[in-house]
């Protein structure tokens, strides 16, 4: 049973914390709130006297204190993590207990899909790599960036620098100094640049965008580059059903889509990026620009009619292969496009889209005129709040969990679909 299936989805509203400023210890200030996925917990960094920091969780401060603390995040299984520093060294704290291992720096917390693996890039004595559940790569590198974690957390990857580079050493750079490391083992292949490593569904294979020369871009899979050369390429994705690799590529002055080095969308777009497959691998969608400065979504190479100056947050349903995204007019008038149709509401801001498990319903947290609420299938919840977090659907898709802050209180609302009337 997943963590979400154990949540309380009994319809109704209740106040989880009635005063967010209450704290079990004297404090100088509290930072912004982070609410757990199930809406039962709110965490805030608490600045304590004597320049100490900790986390206040539903008002109760962790016993352990630190010199610095930042990036609090809840794992998919509900644990609370934060990056903490003591005596000049950094580590990960989980539910108030810091890992024994310490690092020169740690950042960008990652989680496995189930939440049982917590990972992050680290720096130790000027060398870089990854740590997962407290275990660091055996081999560290001069540089490691663009990190990725497999769905099950069994493997981590990063773009790594495998050759040293002196100042102004252009020749060495152009001969290649970067590769991709998986669990600390770098590919034998070396490239001028590498970007966006991505795992397949099983966490066994890795693909990345690479540059073989200053003008030759392609995709490498498990270290082997495609033979095709392209003027540019964006991050690849694996088909979860077939294991094939798709990537947007630029050829003959326009963008298209290649799968396993064969063009499947003819290069006719001004831009193609953020590709995503449906769960069964039968559909491939991406954000595209049919012409310069005009964006929409294309599904299997066919663009939608609705266009916007900006399109972001492409989301494919877990079942059914439905596709949605957010369009806006250069950071104003945000709206949702679902299966090519535009919702009627416009907002000052909209956050990432959330599908129900069966793909029948779509929800999003939005802001309008400084107030926040949740919109489901184009209809807004009638109550607005001071702050709203990403919604969540019940496993059967009939109810929506709303996590919100209003009047200094944390509210937890389970609303049936019929409650959305706006």
Short summary of the structure?
It comes from Solidesulfovibrio fructosivorans JJ]. With 422 residues, the chain is mainly β. The protein has a domain at 308-422: Methylamine Dehydrogenase, Chain H (7 Propeller).
Task: Please tell me about this protein's structure.
- The chain is an all-beta fold.
- It has one helix and 45 strands.
- The protein has a domain at 308-422: 7 Propeller (Methylamine Dehydrogenase, Chain H).
- 1% of the residues lie in helices and 51% in strands.
- Strand 14 and strand 15 form a beta hairpin.
- The protein is globular, with a radius of gyration of 23 Å.
- The mean pLDDT is 97.
Please write out the topology.
Layout: E1 12-17, E2 29-30, E3 34-35, E4 42-48, E5 52-57, E6 60-61, E7 68-74, E8 80-86, E9 89-94, E10 97-98, E11 105-106, E12 110-111, E13 118-124, E14 127-132, E15 135-136, E16 144-149, E17 156-161, H1 170-175, E18 178-182, E19 185-186, E20 193-199, E21 206-213, E22 216-221, E23 224-225, E24 232-233, E25 237-238, E26 245-251, E27 254-259, E28 262-269, E29 271-277, E30 284-291, E31 294-299, E32 302-303, E33 310-316, E34 323-328, E35 335-338, E36 341-342, E37 349-350, E38 354-355, E39 362-368, E40 371-376, E41 379-380, E42 387-388, E43 392-393, E44 399-406, E45 409-416
Antiparallel strand pairs: 1-45, 2-4, 3-4, 4-5, 5-6, 7-8, 8-9, 9-10, 11-13, 12-13, 13-14, 14-15, 16-17, 17-18, 18-19, 20-21, 21-22, 22-23, 24-26, 25-26, 26-27, 27-28, 29-30, 30-31, 31-32, 33-34, 34-35, 35-36, 37-39, 38-39, 39-40, 40-41, 42-44, 43-44, 44-45
InterPro entries: 6-blade_b-propeller_TolB-like (IPR011042)
Organism: Solidesulfovibrio fructosivorans JJ]
Protein name: WD40 repeat domain-containing protein
């Amino acid at each position: 049973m997943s963590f979400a299936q154990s949540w309380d989805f009994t319809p109704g509203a209740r106040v989880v914390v009635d005063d967010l400023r209450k704290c079990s210890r004297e404090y100088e200030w509290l930072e912004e709130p982070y609410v757990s996925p199930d809406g039962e917990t709110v965490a805030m960094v608490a600045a304590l006297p004597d320049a100490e920091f900790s986390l206040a969780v539903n008002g109760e401060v962790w016993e352990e204190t630190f010199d610095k603390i930042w990036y609090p995040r809840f794992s998919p299984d509900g644990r609370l993590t934060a990056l903490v520093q003591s005596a000049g060294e950094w580590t990960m704290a989980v539910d108030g207990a810091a890992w024994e291992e310490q690092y020169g720096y740690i950042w960008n917390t990652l989680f496995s899909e189930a939440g049982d693996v917590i990972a992050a890039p680290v720096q130790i004595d000027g060398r870089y790599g990854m740590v997962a559940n407290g275990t660091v790569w055996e081999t560290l590198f001069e540089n490691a960036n663009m990190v990725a974690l497999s769905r099950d957390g069994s493997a981590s990857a990063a773009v790594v620098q495998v050759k040293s580079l002196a100042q102004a050493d252009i020749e060495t750079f152009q001969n290649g100094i970067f590769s991709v490391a998986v669990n600390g083992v770098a590919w034998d292949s070396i490239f001028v640049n590498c970007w966006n490593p991505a795992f397949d569904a099983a966490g066994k294979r890795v693909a990345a965008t690479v540059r073989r020369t200053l003008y030759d871009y392609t995709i490498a899979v498990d270290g082997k580059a495609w033979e095709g050369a392209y003027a540019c390429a964006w991050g690849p994705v694996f088909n979860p059903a077939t294991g094939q690799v798709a990537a947007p590529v630029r050829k003959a002055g326009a963008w298209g889509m290649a799968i396993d080095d064969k063009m499947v969308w003819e290069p006719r777009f001004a831009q193609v990026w953020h590709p995503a497959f449906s769960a069964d691998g039968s559909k491939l969608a991406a954000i595209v620009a049919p012409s310069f400065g005009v964006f929409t979504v294309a599904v299997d190479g066919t663009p939608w009619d609705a266009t916007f100056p900006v399109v972001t947050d492409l989301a494919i349903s877990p079942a059914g292969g439905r596709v949605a995204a957010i369009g806006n007019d250069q950071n104003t008038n945000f709206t949702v496009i679902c299966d090519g149709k535009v919702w009627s509401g416009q907002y000052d801001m909209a956050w990432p889209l959330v599908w129900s498990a069966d793909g029948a319903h779509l929800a999003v947290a939005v802001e309008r005129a400084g107030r926040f609420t949740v919109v489901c299938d184009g209809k807004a919840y009638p109550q607005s709040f001071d702050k709203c977090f990403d919604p969540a659907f019940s496993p059967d898709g009939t109810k929506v969990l709303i996590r919100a802050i209003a009047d200094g209180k944390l509210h937890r609302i389970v609303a049936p679909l019929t409650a959305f009337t706006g």
